[in-house]
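queue> pop job 88
queue> type: inverse folding (structure -> sequence)
queue> payload:
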């Protein structure tokens, strides 16, 4: 305790001494005894001691309070630092030396404590703000594991680490909210599109899921249950859309078939183009409003029913049309064409009511499909047949060209004819390869299908076999003619040696045309579908081949000979006998061949 100034102590001593002196004077005047005086002085000392004792106790209590306040402040400061995750503040203790008083120590702690309290309050406010946002997001998202008791500030942990954890949790919830909102909006957009196409009320549909989804100015519910129910509704509407789309496409298919059957005008078809253009559309391609509504489907179904009724009245005409289509398809693919008897029977059955027209029409449709399928399998062979027939035409033309003895004479267009002959010769040279490939492919086709490949009712392999035989016979005939020509030249040379020759302005027999061998006659008709050609005159097999050809070629030789007048009376009989060996031979049997695009008798 600090010492009082000297003048104050002196004044106190003077005051106490003067008062004690004045008390003694009073006691002397009163006549107090010494014992009473001692007693009164003792009382006075006790009262003074009591006052001192009270003052000491008061000072002691004040010291204890100061120490307690310092300890509490230090403890609170340490707790705040620990809660905020900071290092504790180190303070110098008064009892550890240094001469510092308790009040000074307390005065040093209080500002730091106030500062930490303020920081704690600010930190706690940050926690409250973050937790408030988290609680709000949890309430909007409402996950299954949501627990409101978790959203309370823990004063024992106000560290930055904990605050960062809560901020990360808040960011994750904000991202989840954004994802959920996008998902909900996506579902709502899909629902709106489906309701638009199906002709349904969008607002009533979404309000059945949750009332907040039908109001634009209200936040959307984003709970797991809402999202799940939206997905279920979308799947249900998609199934309805697929069913209605299939129904619409079936109706459109039937409508197009009926249009084609009855040759419906384009003006009438144009009214339903919005239906037929979706005949092969996918689910995502149908987006027009009301396209799959019940009213629109009923409208289309009514139109199909009307066309069906109209078809019933035109069934006879439709059957005839489809039958003609089937016949034309068979004719184009060189298949056997049915006779008109079956058609007449079908028409009579329809008119009498004995047969359902739809059944006959369905049978014809099945036949058309079967013919188309078979035509596809015959396509490759038919292409080869066309090449073969074209080559046969070229071969026929080339034979006619080779029999023309004036083919090398210079004239208008002679060079073009020569070029064509070269081209035809190249084509003819390829015919054996074409025939071999055609035989191989046809044989494989017949083996695969277990039936004969017929071309206009005639088996193609038989035609090819006959063509090959005829080609071989023609080749033998050409070799025989070359040999006969050589022998004829030798006979003429021998004749000139025996009888001599006389110049004549007329053409020599070798320069005169020989009669052309026709493969089809003047009245031959072209056949690409098995049509019978006019038959050639039949040869009598009872006569020899030589006797059939002696008269006409012999006449040619007599008319075109350039012999001299002296040789005319010689023995011509011997010459005619020898010359008959040079004439062409005709096969004894009657042949029926398809050659060069012609059917020969």
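queue> result:
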């Amino acid at each position: 305790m600090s010492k009082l100034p000297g003048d104050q102590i002196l004044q106190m001593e003077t005051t106490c001494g003067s008062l004690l002196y004045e008390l003694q004077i009073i006691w002397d005047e009163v006549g107090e005894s010494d014992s009473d005086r001692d007693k009164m002085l003792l009382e006075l000392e006790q009262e003074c001691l009591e006052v001192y004792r009270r003052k000491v106790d008061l000072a002691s209590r004040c010291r204890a309070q100061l120490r307690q306040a310092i300890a509490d402040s230090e403890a609170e400061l340490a707790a705040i630092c620990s809660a905020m995750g900071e290092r504790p503040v180190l303070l110098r203790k008064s009892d550890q030396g240094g001469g510092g008083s308790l009040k000074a120590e307390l005065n040093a702690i209080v500002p730091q404590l106030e500062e930490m309290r303020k920081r704690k309050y600010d930190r706690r406010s940050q926690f409250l703000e973050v937790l408030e946002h988290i609680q709000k997001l949890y309430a909007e998202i409402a996950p299954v594991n949501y627990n409101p008791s978790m959203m309370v500030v823990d004063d024992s942990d106000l560290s930055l680490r904990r605050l960062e954890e809560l901020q990360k949790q808040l960011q994750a919830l904000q991202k989840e909210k954004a994802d959920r909102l996008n998902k909900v909006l996506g579902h709502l957009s899909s629902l709106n599109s489906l309701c638009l196409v199906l002709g349904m009320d969008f607002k009533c549909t979404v309000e059945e899921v949750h009332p907040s989804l039908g109001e634009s100015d209200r936040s959307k519910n984003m709970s797991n249950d809402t999202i799940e129910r939206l997905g279920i509704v979308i799947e249900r509407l998609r199934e309805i859309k697929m069913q209605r789309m299939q129904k619409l496409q079936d109706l459109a298919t039937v409508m197009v078939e009926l249009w084609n059957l009855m040759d419906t005008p384009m003006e009438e078809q144009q009214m339903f183009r919005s239906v037929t253009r979706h005949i092969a559309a996918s689910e995502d391609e149908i987006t027009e409003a009301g396209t799959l509504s019940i009213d629109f489907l009923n409208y289309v179904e009514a139109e199909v029913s009307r066309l069906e009724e109209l078809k019933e009245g035109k069934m006879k005409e439709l059957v005839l049309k489809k039958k003609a289509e089937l016949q034309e398809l068979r004719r184009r693919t060189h298949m056997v064409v049915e006779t008109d008897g079956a058609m007449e029977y079908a028409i009579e059955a329809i008119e009498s009511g004995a047969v359902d027209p739809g059944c006959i029409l369905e049978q014809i449709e099945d036949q058309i499909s079967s013919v188309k399928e078979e035509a596809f399998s015959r396509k490759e062979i038919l292409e080869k047949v066309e090449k073969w027939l074209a080559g046969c035409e070229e071969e026929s033309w080339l034979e006619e060209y080779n029999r023309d003895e004036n083919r090398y004479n210079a004239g208008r267009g002679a060079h073009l004819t020569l070029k064509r002959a070269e081209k035809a010769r190249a084509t003819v040279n390829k015919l054996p390869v074409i025939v071999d490939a055609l035989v191989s492919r046809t044989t494989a086709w017949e083996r695969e299908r277990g039936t004969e490949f017929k071309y206009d009712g005639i088996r193609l392999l038989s035609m090819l076999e006959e063509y090959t035989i005829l080609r071989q016979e023609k080749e033998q005939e050409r070799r025989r003619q070359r040999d006969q020509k050589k022998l004829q030249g030798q006979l003429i040379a021998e004749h000139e040696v025996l009888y001599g020759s006389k110049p004549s302005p007329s053409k020599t027999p070798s320069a005169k045309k020989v009669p052309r061998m026709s493969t089809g006659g003047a009245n031959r008709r072209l056949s690409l579908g098995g049509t019978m050609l006019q038959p050639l005159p039949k040869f009598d097999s009872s006569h020899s081949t030589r006797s059939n050809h002696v008269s006409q070629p012999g006449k040619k030789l007599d008319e075109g000979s350039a012999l001299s007048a002296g040789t005319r009376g010689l023995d011509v009989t011997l010459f005619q006998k020898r010359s008959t060996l040079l004439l062409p031979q005709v096969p004894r049997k009657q042949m029926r061949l398809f050659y060069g695009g012609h059917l020969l008798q």
